[in-house]
Write a structure and sequence with these properties.
heterodimer, A: mainly alpha, 6 helices, 70% helix, B: mainly alpha, 61% helix, binds protoporphyrin IX containing FE
Chain lengths: 151, 230
């Protein structure tokens, strides 16, 4: 009995990249929620760069996006979530699961611009924030074009 | 050739045509690139709404060969052309089909865009008038229709090359100069005077204003609640 438990613990820890596996529906909900949360914060930055600039608000918003960008969201595209329903039917394209190199590139480009957005937000330069906001948005679009179904 | 030229495309039709070319190219490029250009994409789209409505009005009020009734591709006319019996100046029946398809699809493209969103941070100016699901649906159709548009543009350009190379007819020059080189039995274009132009322009401006959403009621000022510190 004892040895069986030991064996189980051992095999678990040996499997190495122990990232949590979720129920597929939950994994899809988590990623959809994360994206919608980013859209909320993109809208906050947009309101600032197009209207009255609120430095604090932009910092908060940029930090949220940066945190999500660096959260390891890739793990939410676990096997079994190619199709299915989270809050709504998933809009992921099958290519996200097959074109690993492409999606990796899109995600890295996005991470880079998200980090840069947070850095610039801290500085408070409006023109720079506006320009970076555009660059960041373009990386969202870059991934959506190839990996999100339009419907 | 009998040496006499024919007044074919009036100036407003030509200006419309070349402005539309520029605007469509700009809309396609800005739509594909996204980023901060998406804001310009929206503005260009509103301009295109104005152009399309101008052309619709000019198709009634404009001079002879700009009128829809003059070139409307009835089945009898299409058949005549397919039998090789079409000789009249202006849009031939198949060309007319292409014109109407382009106007229709570009119109749909622009109108769907007004309600679209990009799932990032940009909404069309009339986004507030529909619910999110419909906006998503229209965004999807906006994307789908853009592929149809590429196809029609390719056909349009293909036909011009075909006429040039195979039939030795230059379709581009008349659209620049307004003159058709061979008068034949045709009549010079007439009508489409200043008054018609003013009416068509007013309709176009009204449409662009409607598309811009500038008439939507201002959102009520946020109620004076204190924003919580968290
Ligand atoms: C006839 C005029 C228009 C043309 C030819 C056009 C064309 C395009 C093209 C080619 C794209 C890129 C699709 C892609 O490859 O991702 C696009 C995206 C978009 N357009 Fe337009 N568009 C027009 C008018 C408008 C208008 C008037 C608006 C709103 C003001 C608008 C809003 C959008 C939005 C929000 C997107 C992003 C959709 C997405 O990323 O899913 N468009 N458009």
């Amino acid at each position: 009995m004892k040895s069986a438990v030991l064996l189980a613990v051992l095999s678990l820890s040996l499997s190495g990249v122990a990232s949590a596996q979720f129920k597929s529906e939950d994994a899809i909900k988590y990623r959809q929620s994360a994206y919608v949360t980013m859209a909320w914060n993109m809208a906050r930055i947009k309101a600032s760069v197009e209207g009255a600039y609120n430095k604090d608000d932009v910092i908060k918003a940029a930090n949220v996006i940066q945190a999500i960008a660096n959260s390891g969201m890739g793990a939410l595209y676990q096997p079994g979530t190619e199709t299915g329903k989270g809050w709504e039917d998933t809009r992921v394209k099958p290519e996200l699961f097959t074109n690993k190199e492409g999606v990796g590139k899109a995600a890295m480009a996005f991470n880079k611009e998200a980090n840069e957005m947070a850095r610039i937000a801290a500085g408070g330069d409006v023109a720079a924030a506006k320009e970076q906001f555009g660059k960041l948005g373009a990386t969202c679009k870059g991934c959506h074009t190839d990996f999100k179904i339009k419907k | 050739m009998n040496g006499k030229r024919l007044r074919l495309w009036d100036l407003p039709t030509r200006l419309f045509h070349w402005l539309l070319v520029l605007a469509i190219v700009a809309a396609i490029v800005s739509g594909q690139l996204g980023g901060n250009l998406i804001v310009w994409h929206g503005r260009i789209g509103i301009f295109i709404v104005g152009l399309i409505v101008f052309r619709l009005a000019w198709g009634v009020l404009g001079s002879t060969y700009a009128r829809f009734a003059q070139f409307f591709p009835t089945p009898a006319r299409v058949k005549a052309q397919l039998r090789g019996e079409w000789r009249q100046p202006g849009h031939n029946p198949l060309g007319a089909l292409s014109v109407l398809a382009l106007l229709g699809l570009i119109g749909f493209q622009a109108v769907s865009g007004l309600f679209a969103n990009d799932d990032i941070a940009f909404n069309g100016p009339l986004y507030d008038l529909v619910d999110g699901a419909l906006s998503n649906r229209l965004s999807g159709l906006h994307y789908l229709a853009s592929n149809g548009l590429y196809l029609l543009i390719a056909l349009h350009l293909g036909a011009i090359v075909f006429y040039r190379r195979v039939k030795q007819i230059n379709l581009v020059r008349p659209m620049l100069t307004g003159w058709h080189e061979d008068k034949g039995e045709g009549e010079d274009a007439r009508g489409g005077g200043p008054l018609a132009l003013i009416v068509a322009l007013m309709l176009a401006v009204a449409a662009a204003y409607g598309a811009s959403g500038a008439w939507l009621p201002e959102p009520p000022p946020p109620p004076a609640v204190e924003i919580p510190a968290w």
